[in-house]
Amino acid sequence: MTTTRREVLGWLAGLGAAAGLLPREAGASPRVTALRGATLIDSSGVRPNTTIVLADDRILAIGRDLPLPRGSTVLEGRFVIPGLWDMHVHGAFLDRITLPLCLVNGVTGIREMWGFPPIYELRGQIERGEVLGPRLVVGSAIIDGPHSTLPGALIATTPDEGRQAVRDAKAQGADFVKVYSYLDLPTLTAIADECARQAITFAGHCSNHVPLGDASDLGQKTFEHMYGLSFATSTRETQLRQAIADLPLDPANSFAWFKQVLEFERQAALTHSRSKAVRLANRLRRNNSALCPTMVAMRVYSSPADRFANDPRMKYMPAFYRDLWRDQLKNWAPVSQQEIRQQAEFFRRRQDQVAEMHEHGVEVLAGTDAGNPYSFSGFSVHDELELLVEAGLSPKAVLKAATRDATVRPGDAANLVVLDGDPLDDIRNTRRVHTVLARGKVLGPVERRTMLADVEKAAQEPFPTVQRTCC
Q1: What's the CA gap between 111 and 113, in Å, rounded?
Q2: What is the rounded distance in angstroms from the CA atom of residue 421 to the CA atom of residue 436?
Q3: Mean pLDDT for each consecutive 10-residue tract of the chain (471 residues)?
Q4: Whole-angstrom Cα distance, residue 347 to residue 302?
Q5: Given 13, 68, 317, 365, which is the most exposed site by the fewest CB atoms within 10 A?
């Protein structure tokens, strides 16, 4: 027997009125879904044998043995976590690929790290319900200068140009300003000051010209890819920073300079100081600065170029990505046996440094650098969680990082992931996605398989030319 409108409204009034939850359109009955007998895992702890009731796109009630209206969609048992976030993504413009791959994998929010007007419009379409996708937080155009490895970067050669870039980003609709590797201290300082004036945050690479702690003091909110961390915790930081200052740069080949700086950073990791790490952690914590290590991407760049070439998830990527990623790795990947050993050790040391920062209270974010070689939208979030656990973080801490410390409460948006295994027992169980609930949609096994099939088909269609180097 179907539930009548009167029955549903009466039930909603009884259970949901305190949260102000009633159908938004008169005459329309809400879609009610219940997760019954579930183990709910969020930042508040573990709640076994819990019933979670959702009406349309909101969490209506959480408790035990809650009454359910006839006609409710009921899922029994299993483990439930808040929707996952990927805090470093490129490629939202590939909306038929990036967006569904995220949702299928339980990623209900992403931070797009290179913004431009079509992505700002896509963000609006998602919020208005015109496009199904994860929540988008979108950065500005990448601000770099006076040189850059990125052909599409916005170059700021002076502090005044840096200020103007911030004002333009705010006017265009960026959620935050993205800074990059070549900015000098006067320009970064001006960007930071203008961000404060415009009430917008800035995040991105640690500039190779500005120590990580100093950039944090300026107000930089997140530091990507572990860049700058080894310098900031090295007993040889002063000498190595002088080597950077003395390093000649050929504007026609700026990547060669960047790669030499990475070699200096590898050397810095060999002289790690625990006392310097504690002092750095204190600064980052005081400034509310977070680390987004993107270990998935850094592992690829530290490995031989062909190590991941046969990943079966390539079938979900645009066909041109295979050549694009192969060409990108020609500049990055170690070749000789000595280089391969050195880069593997460097990667492990950087993992240790991230775990050390976390141990001292620095926030760590889960991000993948999706869109770069063998970092796959949606899928690679689970890779990142495994690498964070491998680094030394607990599954509980990693889930907290991946869900942005979310607590599931009545009245919240119904962005949840239903798992077939306990992620606190084994973080690899986040891969065992049964159902995703996002924006009022219930994406069960059938729907998720259909979405994957559609992505695989879309990946074979021609796409416009994209930036050949990302970050």
Answers
A1: 6
A2: 14
A3: 41 44 50 93 96 92 88 92 98 95 98 96 96 98 95 95 98 98 98 98 98 98 98 98 96 94 98 98 98 98 96 95 92 96 98 98 98 97 98 98 96 96 98 95 97 97 61 66
A4: 7
A5: 13
Q: What is the DSSP letter of 199?
A: T
Model's pTM, two decimal places?
Answer: 0.93
Q: Could you tell me what percentage of the chain is helix, strand and coil, using 3-state DSSP and rounding each to the nearest 5?
A: 45, 20, 35
Axis-axis angle for helices 337-359, 254-269 (nearest 10): 60
Contacts of 206 (CB under 8 A, 6+ apart): 181, 212, 215, 220, 223, 224, 227, 228, 229
The H or E element that residue 217 is part of is: helix 212-218
The residues facing 47 across adjacent strands are 40
Token pair in block for residue 379: 């899928």
Please report, as a single letter, which amino acid is at residue 299. Answer: R
φ and ψ at residue 404, rounded to 5 degrees = 55, 45
Length of the chain in terms of residues written: 471
Give per-residue burial for 393-404: e unless 16+ CB within 10 Å, then b. bebebbbbbbbb
* Cα-based torsion angle of the residue sequence 428, 430, 433, 438 in order, rounded to the nearest 10 degrees: -160
Answer left, alpha or beta for residue 346, where phi above 0 means left and psi between -120 and 50 means alpha: alpha
Cα atoms found within 13 Å of the Cα of residue 215, Cβ hemisphere only = 33
Q: Please report, to the nearest 10 degrees, the dihedral formed by the alpha carbons of residues 428, 453, 53, 25 taken in order.
A: 150
Instruction: For residues 408 and 81, give the distance between their C-alpha atoms in angstroms, rounded to a whole number.
Output: 8
Q: Residue 118, Cβ neighbours under 10 Å: how many? A: 11
Amino acid at the residue 90: H
Please state whether beta strands 433-438 and 416-419 pair in parallel, antiparallel, or not at all (unpaired).
antiparallel
- The single residue listed with the structure tokens 């945050």 is 201
H helical segments located in 333-440: 337-359, 379-391, 395-402
Determine the Cα–Cα distance for residues 65 and 82; give it in Å rounded to an integer: 21
* Count of other CB atoms within 10 angstroms of residue 309: 14
- 449 CB-near residues (< 8 Å, 6+ apart): none
